[in-house]
UniProtKB/TrEMBL annotation:
Region Amidoligase domain: start-end pairs: 1-270
Organism: Postechiella marina
Family assignment from sequence similarity: Belongs to the CTP synthase family.
Annotated Mg(2+) binding sites: 74, 144
Keyword Transmembrane: no
Entry-linked InterPro entries: Class_I_gatase-like (IPR029062), CTP_synthase (IPR004468), CTP_synthase_N (IPR017456), GATASE (IPR017926), GATase1_CTP_Synthase (IPR033828), P-loop_NTPase (IPR027417)
Protein name per Swiss-Prot or TrEMBL: CTP synthase
């Protein structure tokens, strides 16, 4: 497509957690399947500069992009659905908006002026929205506005959308409003009133929704769609139902059946055709028709909230489909693991993943879990903190350095097998100061990693402060834990393996961020394969 970039704004009403991210990603998938170059952006109305400083319990996982941005987990959905990398520009928060406006003010760029929400904050929002469009890389930019219409903190964003629709001109920017149509079982009825009110709230800010996407547990009958169209001032074909699905990977097809892509393209004045999503459908078919089942333990401390490990769970879905196996994930709280209950908690599992994390809570349980899988030849994948725990466990129980630790857990440890990186030692700020984003790694040829990745130099995304302490490398390797991946520039250890064990791999980076439907991550695919063969031999 040539010509102007088109913009689609996705707003949410009635309640949070309606799944705007999945709707945006599904729509993008359908547009991508028709040859359009699409990207998705998330605007988050909170004041943190990025979600990196947020507790996973509050906001779910923090997703990391190639360029090292710590972002909202919805960006993970965008990448997994579209297989196109996102970047810092794809996630903007109120904190970041204010930070740039205030920096400009300090530089004197507004000298003599009173700096205000309108126009200064709204101008900065508008600039950030259009940055991706101006790159020339995209025909369509979908901008998802976090929060719920009517919230105090969403107001500047909605105002920016109102202004942008004028600036961009008709046909160049449309608004999709995602709402809830609840079912009252006592009355046996679907209710449209919350949607009517939410559309009205949006209109109070001067924004008329073009398309309604209605989350519902039951099919929306025709008369109800007509009523919604009439009361909410949209066309009848622009009332789209989004019925609860058994998997998020069904949503693109559900949106296709509802014709969401068609109405969107019509409103934007663009040609529509039948999207080619054959590969996607192949994946969905494999995902839903597994030939066998395995159970993998996910050992972590944020297990109460599934969103904390979102990308890991999704990477298992991709890798499971690739192996035609259903991967059942059993979450195990590391805080409650000890020598006495470890066999009971992990003995029946086909594989174990020790999760990333920060701080001391639950780490002894993680170490106990690693010891159990190492001694019992159960396939193991350790990610980031999980890898660090594998190193500590090996140093303590194989080499006999009983006080081996990470300086994150004990700054005074005499045997810091995991230690703060040199360049981290002088940093005091917590936000955005970790080793972040994509770094290269050189693989050892005949290791598991060397065989799994079909290349000898790979690049993977990072998010950590501590590292394998290379002073201990000769000792660890002599005792049987090898470094099978190194950063070619710094020599830092990226991957450890135990060649004596059938499948024991720890990675300092986060492979889960790069797994997509079109490109299931090779390490997860190989891990699930090893888990399957362990399961068969049991
Ligand atoms: N807390 C560890 C570090 O900072 C691991 C981080 C992680 O698992 N993402 O190095």
């Amino acid at each position: 497509m040539t010509g102007k970039t088109k913009y689609i704004f996705v707003t949410g009403g009635v309640t949070s957690s309606l799944g705007k991210g999945i709707i945006a990603a599904s729509l993008a998938k359908l547009l991508q399947g028709q040859g359009y170059r699409v990207t998705i952006q998330k605007l988050d109305p909170y004041i943190n500069v990025d979600p990196g400083t947020l507790n996973p319990y509050e906001h779910g996982e923090c997703y990391v992009t190639e360029d090292g941005a710590e972002t909202d987990l919805d960006l993970g959905h965008y990448e997994r659905f579209l297989n196109v990398p996102t970047s810092q520009a794809n996630n903007v928060t109120t904190g970041r908006i204010y930070q740039s406006v205030i920096q400009k003010e300090r530089r004197g760029e507004f000298l003599g002026k009173t700096v205000q929400v309108v126009p200064h904050i709204t101008d900065e929002i508008k600039r950030r929205v259009q940055l991706l469009g101006q790159s020339g890389d995209y025909d369509i930019v979908i901008t998802e506005i976090g929060g719920t219409v009517g919230d105090i903190e969403s107001l500047p964003y909605i105002e920016a959308v109102r202004q942008l629709r004028w600036d961009l001109g008709e046909d160049n920017g449309i608004v999709i409003h995602l709402t809830l149509v609840p079912y009252l079982s006592a009355a046996g009825e679907l209710k449209t009133k919350p949607t009517q009110h939410s559309v009205k709230t949006l209109m109070e800010s001067g924004v008329q929704a073009d398309i309604l996407v209605c989350r519902t547990e039951h099919d929306l009958p025709k008369d109800l769609r007509r009523k919604l169209a009439l009361f909410c001032n949209v066309k009848e074909d622009a009332v789209i139902q989004s019925i609860d699905a058994s998997t998020i990977y069904d949503v693109p097809n559900l949106m296709l059946e509802e014709g969401l892509d068609k109405v969107v393209l019509k409103k934007l004045g663009l040609k529509s055709s039948v999207p080619d999503i054959a590969n996607w459908n192949k994946f969905v078919h494999r995902h839903k028709n597994p030939r066998s089942e395995v159970t993998i333990g996910l050992i972590g401390k944020y297990v109460e909230l599934q969103d904390s490990y979102k990308s890991i769970l999704e990477a298992f879905i991709h890798a499971g489909a690739e192996n035609e196996v259903k991967v059942v994930i059993e979450s195990v709280h590391s805080e409650y693991l000890n020598d006495d209950n470890i066999k009971l908690k992990l003995g029946h599992l086909d594989g174990v993943l020790v999760a990333p994390g920060f701080g001391e809570r639950g780490i002894e349980g993680k170490i106990t879990a690693v010891k159990f899988v190492r001694e019992n030849n159960i396939p193991f994948l350790g990610i980031c903190l999980g890898m660090q725990m594998a190193v500590i466990e090996f140093a303590r129980n194989v080499i006999g350095i009983s006080n081996a630790n990470s300086t994150e857990m004990n700054p005074e440890t005499p045997n810091p097998v995991i230690d703060l990186m040199e360049e981290q030692k002088t940093i005091t700020d917590k936000g955005g100061t970790m080793r972040l984003g994509s770094w290269k790694c050189q693989l050892k040829e005949d290791s598991i990693a060397g065989k799994v990745y079909k290349s000898d130099v790979i690049s993977e995304r990072h998010r950590h402060r501590y590292e394998f302490n290379s002073n201990f490398k000769p000792q660890m390797e002599a005792a049987g834990m090898i470094a099978s991946g190194l950063n070619p520039d710094t020599g830092l250890v990226e991957i450890v393996e135990i060649p004596e064990h059938p499948w024991f791999v720890g990675v300092q980076y986060h492979p889960e961020y790069k797994s997509t439907v079109s490109n299931p991550h090779p390490l997860f695919v190989a891990f699930v394969k090893a888990v399957l063969s362990y399961h068969r031999k049991k």
